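Hi team,

Filling in the usual template for the complex we talked about on Friday. All components are listed, including any nucleic acid strands or ligand strings, so the model treats them as one assembly.

SUBMITTER: L.P.
PURPOSE: interface mapping
COMPONENTS: two
RESIDUES: 330
SEQUENCES:
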Amino acid sequence: MAEQDTANYEDISSFTLTPERERELVEAQIECTFSWVSSQGQPVGVTMNYVARDGSIWLTAVRERARIRALQRNPRASVAISSAGTNLGSGKTITYIGDVVLHEDQATKDWFYPALGAIISPYPAPTVEAAIAQLDTPSRLILELVPRRSISFDLESLAGQGG
Amino acid sequence: MQGYEDVTLYALTPERERELVDKQVECNFIWTNKDGHGIGVIMNYVAKDGSIWLTATSQRARIKALRRDPRASVVISSMGTDMGAGKQVTYKGTVTLHEDQATKDWFYPAMGAVISPYPAPTIEDAITHLDTPLRVILELVPEKTIAFDGDKIAKASHEGTVPGAEA
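RESULT (copied from the run log):
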């Protein structure tokens, strides 16, 4: 079970991750759902790989994508990370709510492409170097989500209450 | 576009999309809050009749937000399934809120099967925990889909056929 209002299951707000478990989750996972609001006001999300650094969540997309135009108009966004597929097991989640800063300076590219390249190789890119070559193209921007608040959930706490 | 710039080339087939939706049990549900902020949280879902069904209680901020603006999205990733990572689908649509007994009668057992034996020990326990006065059932009716198959971009990467790249 992921987030579900619950003994009954109506109020699950007390079943949060500890700061240690939150760090463990963010380090163990490699993908998140990035969510924004389109120009028509539609909330939208897609799965993206991320790098966690300096308290922010860093992602990338090319400037032609609709999400970039939307973020230039309205930088408010969120990132949700699930423990699914990690060694933490399922049922641990965190959502970071904040604003996105767009970067295109060389200093950011210099650390970010190798960091993301390590995550996306050997799948889908065969090597870190191949990943960097595919990422380092003229249209690419780097997105930094700076969290302002978070919503977390730890299902093990709930299951431990007798489910 | 070159390199990994245009990922729209690598969509899931309808068969792989169905497989993904059938195999996964959690999604990211996204709505807009009153400040115009897109917010997503991980929730369990049931797929039925072309819709994605979820549940929350009526005092949650997302329910108040959906009564104001029913537009929402659901994102499903293959992470944690036997399909491996890298496959995903986003359904953009509108949410209908249900509180009728007929919907509860099929939905609670279906969701109970998803959330037992973890965290609920049994389906019957799950239904008991779910069937409470404040609960509402959310039906996201998809209007548009964004799908991505990471296996296709991996194949192109390993074969050196990514557009504009020799790597």
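MY TAKE: Chain B touches chain A through 67 residues (CB under 8 Å). The beta strands of chain B are 26-32, 38-44, 46-48, 51-57, 71-77, 87-98, 135-149.

Thanks, L.
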